[in-house]
Structures are given as structure tokens and as C-alpha cells.
């Protein structure tokens, strides 16, 4: 009888602890993370998403290269909460990173910039110890991106050649929205023309329509198009310039 009571007590303890453990990891996926080296802790401007300087500095340089989450470039710009699992060293929240590059490691889902990896630790000494491991066990979940003061912006990629070849990068996409398709309106033919995903977050079109260009975007999880409320790209667009699309998602 005494033994039976002990089992009952143990069972109650397990039942009390289990919900807390489930709550801790609710919505998270277990994985591993590493980091890459840069001279100043920020990201790299040469990432596979094609973001350039934006890919280095967005989110205060807390960015990451991803592999399984790449989704043929549709994963560019997605935001993730990442936290490591060593209770002695790791902070409770971890960090939030933006996917700006492609990178595959030793069973890792994230290869993080130094600024991002540093945030995994509870304090500077803990961060330094985590860095010595090189690769750490983590869990992650997708979270909404927030860019206060920004609408979706369109940047003219450096490979563009006015006026015929137009390549663009879509920046500051909020929420948990993947850009899945882009079209621009041909004012002469009165029709929408699709842009091709060249690579990463770069969309392009050969023989681009003339004049100010209205755009519409399609996002994951919805069938309708979201159209710019004005001509998002001026008729005399410039390579390297960025324009407010006035697209609200």
C-alpha cells in the first residue's frame, strides 16, 4: 500500500511538471544553430537573397543564413525567434533573426551573424562560452516581422539596365508573409505582366513596360493580390534607388 502511494505521488508530480514543459516549447521546432564571422558583427552584404546592404544591417544586423527554411528564395525576409537550450547559459527569449542568406551547416537550420548569436546568451560571459561551442542546440519558431515607419519598399537591383531590364528587391515585408508572385501593369497593352523570381528575393522582367509602374504582390496563405495604391516605380527609375510601394499587408 505504501509503495502504491509513492507511485501516486510520483504521477502527480509528473502531471504537474508536464504542462510547464509543453508550454515552454509550444510552437517551437528543435534544431541546431551556428554562426559565421564578420569584422563588425553584422551580416554580409553578399547574401544569396540579393539584399545587399539591407541584408547586412536590417534588424540591427541580427540576421541568419538558412537552408531548410530557404524555400527556393521565398523564405528570404522571414523572421524567427531562436533560443538555445542550455539553461545555464541561454537567455529565456533568445533572439529574433531575419533570414537574409542561404547557408547549410552541420544539421543546422540557422547560421547566424555574430550580433544574433551573441543574443542567445544570458550575459556576455555566457555568450562567449556559447561561441566556443560553435554549434548549439536550439529551438525556433516563426514570428511576425515588424518594421515601424515602413511600408513595403521596392529597391531597383544593381543588375537592372534602364529602360529594358528591370530587377527589383522587395524590402520590409511585415508579418509572416512570403512574397510568392509579383506583377507589374503594362499601360500600353492594358495587362498585368508577371515578373520572374531570378533568385532569392530578386524579381526581374525583360522588356519592362514603360512609364510609371503599378505593382501587385501575392503573399503566401492568400489567393488575392495586394496592389500598390499608386505607381510604385517612377517612369525614370534609377538603379540602386528604393521607392515606397504604399502596399499595406
Keywords:
single chain; 249 residues; alpha+beta; Immunoglobulin-like; six-stranded mixed β-barrel; five-stranded antiparallel beta sheet
Structure overview:
The structure is a single chain. This protein is α+β, with helices and mostly antiparallel strands and 249 residues long. The chain has two domains: 116 residues, RlpA-like domain (Barwin-like endoglucanases); 96 residues, Expansin, cellulose-binding-like domain (Immunoglobulin-like). It has four helices and 15 strands. It has a six-stranded mixed barrel with strand order 1-5-2-4-3-6. Strands 11-12-8-7-15 form a five-stranded antiparallel sheet, with no helix packed on it. The protein has a four-stranded antiparallel sheet with strand order 10-9-13-14, with no helix packed on it. A hairpin with a 4-residue loop joins β9 and β10. InterPro entries: Expan_Lol_pI (IPR007118), Expansin/allergen_DPBB_dom (IPR007112), Expansin_CBD (IPR007117), Expansin_CBD_sf (IPR036749), RlpA-like_DPBB (IPR009009), RlpA-like_sf (IPR036908).
The number of domains: 2
Low-pLDDT parts are 1-24
Helix content: 10-25%
Molecular shape: elongated
CATH architecture of the largest domain: Beta Barrel
Query: What series of H and E elements makes up the topology?
Result: HEHEEEEHHEEEEEEEEEE
Side by side, the strands of the main sheet go 1-5-2-4-3-6
Number of strands: 15
The count of helical stretches stands at: 4
Mind telling me the CATH class of the largest domain? Answer: Mainly Beta
On the 0 to 100 scale, the average pLDDT is 90
Amino acid at each position: 500500500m505504501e509503495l502504491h502511494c509513492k507511485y501516486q505521488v510520483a504521477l502527480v508530480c509528473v502531471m504537474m511538471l508536464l504542462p510547464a514543459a509543453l508550454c515552454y516549447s509550444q510552437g517551437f521546432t528543435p534544431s541546431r544553430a551556428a554562426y559565421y564571422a564578420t569584422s563588425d558583427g553584422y551580416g554580409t552584404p553578399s547574401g544569396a537573397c540579393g539584399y545587399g546592404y539591407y541584408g547586412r544591417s536590417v534588424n540591427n544586423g541580427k540576421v541568419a543564413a538558412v537552408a531548410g527554411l530557404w524555400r527556393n528564395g521565398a523564405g528570404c525576409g522571414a523572421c524567427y525567434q531562436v533560443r538555445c537550450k542550455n539553461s545555464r547559459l541561454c537567455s529565456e527569449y533568445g533572439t529574433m533573426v531575419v533570414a537574409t542568406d542561404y547557408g547549410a551547416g552541420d544539421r543546422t537550420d540557422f547560421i547566424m551573424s555574430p550580433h544574433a548569436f551573441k543574443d542567445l546568451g544570458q550575459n556576455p560571459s555566457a555568450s562567449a562560452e556559447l561561441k566556443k561551442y560553435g554549434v548549439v542546440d536550439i529551438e525556433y519558431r516563426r514570428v511576425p516581422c515588424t518594421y515601424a515607419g515602413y511600408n513595403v519598399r521596392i529597391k531597383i537591383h544593381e543588375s537592372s539596365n534602364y529602360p529594358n531590364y528591370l530587377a527589383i528587391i522587395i524590402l520590409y515585408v511585415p508579418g509572416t508573409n512570403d512574397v510568392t508572385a509579383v506583377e507589374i501593369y503594362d499601360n500600353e497593352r492594358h495587362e498585368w505582366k508577371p515578373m520572374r523570381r531570378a533568385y532569392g528575393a530578386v524579381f526581374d522582367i525583360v522588356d519592362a513596360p514603360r512609364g510609371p509602374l503599378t505593382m501587385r504582390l501575392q503573399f503566401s496563405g492568400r489567393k488575392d493580390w495586394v496592389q500598390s495604391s499608386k505607381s510604385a516605380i517612377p517612369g525614370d527609375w534609377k538603379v540602386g534607388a528604393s521607392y515606397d510601394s504604399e502596399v499595406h499587408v
